[in-house]
Write a structure and sequence with these properties.
The chain has about 270 residues and is of the alpha/beta class. The protein has eleven helices and eight strands. Helix 4 (about 130-140) runs antiparallel to helix 5.
Length: about 270
């Protein structure tokens, strides 16, 4: 992947596909590889995809200083500027959806359409995962047993049906082996997510907005999608029945169809 330079920051990114630009913003502990080939392959005929790794991840600049969602949104805006992309469709999932909210609020002219997947806005009515889910994940992560940590992460992020799919877990494990994210970076991202709050500002958003959320999401429960949709006039919520947090892993083709129908509809 090439490197974009934004002042002193370097971001590892990749462009692929053909069509209007679509910026994909990954979530906590994820890398550009976590989008998965099936989802990206379904999007490439219709979009020029821009995927990248956040600061502290992969070949992007090491994480230094405090991490906030606003800072990550500034990185995303800077990447579009460095690539000379005046305006892009934007998809953000989980933490990346929080980044996409801040990007759209601070730089609305850069965001042609907004798709927010399995994400959170903070404020009244918001809720992150049940504390037991985080305790189980933290215990597995700190155990020193990498296989246990990966299995726990996979099980928490997908439906029970997919968690039992050995081939799906093998793909997840292979991605982690290719590009690992350091535990201190993950913890800094978690703290940034916990402090995120766009609740009062979301009504300012005027670009076409789609919410996609699995109904059995254990990381960011489904009611968060309903709350965000209620805060953005004209937005639409697409519930995915029986699907977990990584909906684009469980239903890659359908997820791509939803995004295309939203982003490419006639003005």
């Amino acid at each position: 992947m090439p490197i974009a330079r934004i002042g002193e920051l370097e971001l590892d990114y990749e462009r692929s596909g053909a069509g209007p630009p679509l910026l994909l913003i990954m979530g906590m502990s994820g890398t550009a590889l976590h989008w998965g080939d099936a989802f990206l392959d379904a999007l490439r005929p219709d979009f020029q995809l821009i995927t990248y790794d956040h600061r502290g991840v992969g070949a992007s600049s090491p994480l230094e200083g405090a991490l906030t969602i606003t800072r990550l949104a500034q990185d995303a805006a800077g990447l579009l500027g460095a690539l000379e992309v005046a305006q892009a469709h934007v998809l953000g999932i989980s933490m990346g959806g929080m980044v996409a909210q801040e990007l759209a609020l601070a730089h609305p002219g850069q965001v042609r359409t907004l798709t927010l997947g399995c994400t959170y806005c903070g404020g009244p009515g918001s809720s992150l995962a049940d504390p037991q889910v985080w305790r189980d994940l933290a215990e597995a992560m700190m155990s020193g047993d990498r296989e246990r940590a990966l299995r726990a992460a996979f099980a928490a992020n997908v439906s029970a049906e997919m968690a039992a799919d050995r081939a799906a877990f093998a793909r997840f494990r292979a991605i982690a082996a290719r590009r690992a994210v350091a535990v201190p970076v993950i913890m800094a991202q978690l703290q940034a997510c916990a402090a995120h709050d766009t609740y009062a500002r979301l009504p300012r958003l005027q670009m076409p907005t789609l919410l996609v959320h699995g109904t059995v999401d254990r990381i960011i429960p489904f009611p968060n999608g309903e709350l965000i949709a209620s805060r953005i006039a004209g937005s639409r919520l697409e519930p995915l029945e029986g699907i977990g947090h990584l909906f684009f892993w469980e239903q890659p083709e359908h997820s791509a169809e939803l995004l295309c129908a939203h982003a490419l509809q006639p003005a």
